[in-house]
Amino acid sequence: EQEASSGLMTSDDYYSGSVSAAFGGNTCIIPFAAQHRGQSLKDVLETYHDRAGPKSVVDYSFHLIISDPTDTVLHQELPKAIEEGITSFKVYMTYDRLIVDDGQMLDILAVAKKQGALTMIHAENNAMIKWMSGKLIDSGHGAPKYHALSHPRTAESEAINRAVALAGFLDAPILIVHVSTEAGARIIAKARYDGRKVFGETCPQYMFLNAKQMDLPDMHGAKLCCSPPLRDRASQEEIWRCLQNGTFQVYSSDHAPYRYDDTGKLHAGPNPDFPQIANGLPGIEMRLPLLFSEGFVKGRITLNHFVALAATNASKIYGLDHCKGSITEGRDADIAIWDPDVTRVVKAEDMHDNMEYTPYEGMEISGWPTTVIQRGEVIVEGNELKAVRGAGEFVPRKTFDSTGMPGRLVPELDPDKNFGVDLGI
């Protein structure tokens, strides 16, 4: 139940989306609360609380999307949001209606660092994408599959490199979201090796889908349009390798469902060029079954690594580990019980989101969550939902914990090295 910058709404509300999450073994979600230009964060958060509170069957928080970092937003509303337990922001380096420039990003990073928040970054070079998209459209290549060409790998790696440099300048913690390329992952790995406060995230579509699957008749390739786009099989293997070696600490659904009709993918008409197609895929219900089946069952990752990617890492990074992410005395009794012997073929009709297709149709999955417990109460048992609307609670999160990540100030910001100038960074 999130508005795109175009005004388009995702197909799920907080009921259908949270039910889908629960059946996929998730007991807590952190969807996005999106600020668009001219909106106050106070109004945005009130709107999203009103949407989620009466409907969500699982616990929830919000990541705040910041697109209009005015002085009021930076110095009053962001600190207030952090005080209320919303301790992660997302910024975009692309999309004309969402993009923040480098100076604005520095402003946001500085506030986040000072107040104890984590900045999440959609890192793609906007000019490169617009240039490439224009060339493709002008040459008659507007079909959905050409979306995969319009966001070059270099657009991702350049923007990740720039984001890491900006954050490193301020010694601010960042998380690069939905990484799709080896080159981008290598930049993250090097930054971490150098002691930077940088985390990496990837998503199911970059591990289980590829661009060739977009080469479909009519407009059906639109179902697989997302950004960054699907890559090739070689990239899939590299993303797996980076998941295995710890370059990616977070594995998220990137759940952004749009139906294949005029309310979603085809909102601009029955035959739009790819820039007019709504970007995003459904994924929250399949996030963990895919990783369990293709990761743990097939021996790519250990069971402990699966648990870390499923829950523990995200709970620590996002400030939820005081109540979520581990089975520990004093924590919420959130437990997903898996049957490793269950085999299912993925079908859209079996999903619980408000979609008529799944990009993982026909995949055979080994292992499935059969019982899901939230705060000691069973919310899913087999194929039956036990939770009621509004059973989920808002979870205030802690500020970012940089323990073990000491970081360092650049000389220009270090009073011991810059003639004693203290800019309060």
UniProtKB/TrEMBL annotation:
One CC-aspect GO term: cytosol
Pfam family, one: Amidohydro_1
Keyword annotations from UniProtKB, A to Z: Hydrolase, Metal-binding, Phosphoprotein
One GO MF term: metal ion binding
Cofactor requirement: Zn(2+)
Domain Amidohydrolase-related: 78-378
Gene3D superfamilies: Metal-dependent hydrolases, Urease, subunit C, domain 1
SUPFAM superfamilies for the chain: Composite domain of metallo-dependent hydrolases, Metallo-dependent hydrolases
Protein family according to the UniProt entry: Belongs to the metallo-dependent hydrolases superfamily. Hydantoinase/dihydropyrimidinase family.
Name of protein: Amidohydrolase-related domain-containing protein
Lineage: unclassified sequences, metagenomes, ecological metagenomes
